[in-house]
Amino acid sequence: MKINGMVTIRPQMIKDAAAFYKILNEGHFQYFTMNVASIEAEKRFLRRSRKEWQKESAFNFTVMLGSKVIGAVGIMPESGRSYNAEIGYFIDRELHGKGYALQAVIQAEQFALVFRPEIQRLQAIIAVDNAPSIRVVEKAGYKREGCLKSYLKCGEQHLDAYIYGKILR
Ligand SMILES: CC(C)(COP(=O)(O)OP(=O)(O)OC[C@H]1O[C@@H](n2cnc3c(N)ncnc32)[C@H](O)[C@@H]1OP(=O)(O)O)[C@@H](O)C(=O)NCCC(=O)NCCS
After folding, report:
1. Residues contacting ligand 1 via CB (< 6 Å)
2. Which residues of 77-87 are buried (b: 16+ CB within 10 A; e: fewer)?
3. 24-59 confidence digits (pLDDT tens)
4. In the structure, how many helices (H) and strands (E) does the chain have?
5. Which of 150, 142, 145, 146 is nearest to 168 (CA)?
6. Is the pTM for the entire model greater than 0.90?
7. Which fold has domain 8-122?
8. Beta carbons of 111 and 129 less than 8 angstroms apart
9. Which of 86, 99, 121, 151 has the greatest number of C-beta atoms within 10 Å?
10. Residue ranges of the domains in the chain?
């Protein structure tokens, strides 16, 4: 197996704003259309994210390669069904294909297993043509449970999405 280095995850910090701004705006991610207007706007998002952590409504992590910010992974419990949580992630386009998203997903799962005993199930909702993301969840052991028609809105388009699930405990 090719080893390209190990990533770590840690809770997001306001100082990550400039790196996220660059990764999200320069990535032009087709199925993850989160345009960030400015570094200040990203700082506001990160402040909200910190409050969400305190309210236990979302747990957003920064993915680090050494001391470099290279992406994010988040776990969002469903409102009213906190035993079910959605996982989402992105990695700097320049570093794709090195196994970093898989590592980040597994570490976020470990966080849920150890620190969030109420979370029974993780799910990912992925555009049917987002092959790299499908590969990540399948490598992590998620099972495809169905197809949600016109579920995702990417720009002006409504896309079909697969729902993948993994029972944690
Ligand atoms: C999805 C994403 C996070 C994957 O990050 P990554 O670090 O490249 O992921 P990994 O390296 O762990 O795994 C990617 C896998 O997809 C494979 N892959 C890449 N392009 C592919 C394609 N067009 N078709 C099939 N497989 C593909 C890679 O070969 C790799 O599989 P392998 O380990 O068996 O070789 C990254 O593409 C991304 O940031 N995309 C934009 C944001 C996004 O779509 N997030 C998910 C929203 S649901």
Report:
1. 29, 31-32, 88-91, 96-102, 124, 126, 130-133, 135-136
2. beeeeeebbbb
3. 999 989 998 778 999 999 999 999 999 999 999 999
4. 4, 7
5. 142
6. yes
7. Aminopeptidase (3.40.630)
8. no
9. 99
10. 8-122
